[in-house]
Amino acid sequence: MAVNYGSKRLVVGAHYGFRDWLSQRITAVLMALFTLTLLVQFLLGGPVGYDSWSGIFAPQWMKVLTLVVIISLAWHAWVGMRDVWMDYIKPVGLRLLAQVFTIVWLVGCAGWAVQVLWRV
C-alpha cells in the first residue's frame, strides 16, 4: 500500500526554508538602508571626528534605527551560522555546543553595541 503524503508531508532537518530565506533578505535590506543613511550623513557632515560621529547618533530616531539594525544583524548572523553548523557539523553534541557559543557571542556583541550606542 502506497502512502500519499501530498501537501501534508513533513520535511525533517532544517525545515525553515522560506521563513529563513525571507528573514535573511529583509535583514540584509535593513542593513543596506542603514548603511546608505549613515553614508549620506557622513558625507554631508563635514570633517570627521568624535563630535561629528556623536552628532550622527545623537537624535533618538537614529538610535532607534541603529538598535533595529543591531538586532537585524544579530538575527542575520544567527540564521546564517545556524545553517552552517547544521550543514557541516554532524555530531549533535558538537553542533549544539557551536550553536550555544554562537548565541552567547551574538547576544554579547549586541549587548555591547547597545551599551555603546546609548552612551553616545
Binned, the helix content reads over 70%
Gross CATH architecture of the domain at 60-120: Up-down Bundle
The geometry reads as elongated
Q: Nearest-angstrom radius of gyration? A: 20 Å
CATH topology of the domain at 60-120: 3 helical TM bundles of succinate and fumarate reductases
Mean pLDDT: 87
Tell me the distance between the termini. Answer: 68 Å
Blueprint (SSEs and pairs):
Elements lengths: L16 H28 L5 H8 L2 H29 L3 H28 L1
Helix pairs in contact: 1-3, 3-4
Which short descriptors sum up this protein?
3 helical TM bundles of succinate and fumarate reductases, 4 helices, mainly alpha, elongated, 120 residues
Concise synopsis of the structure shown:
The protein has a domain at 60-120: Fumarate reductase/succinate dehydrogenase, transmembrane subunit (3 helical TM bundles of succinate and fumarate reductases, Up-down Bundle). The protein contains four helices and no strands.
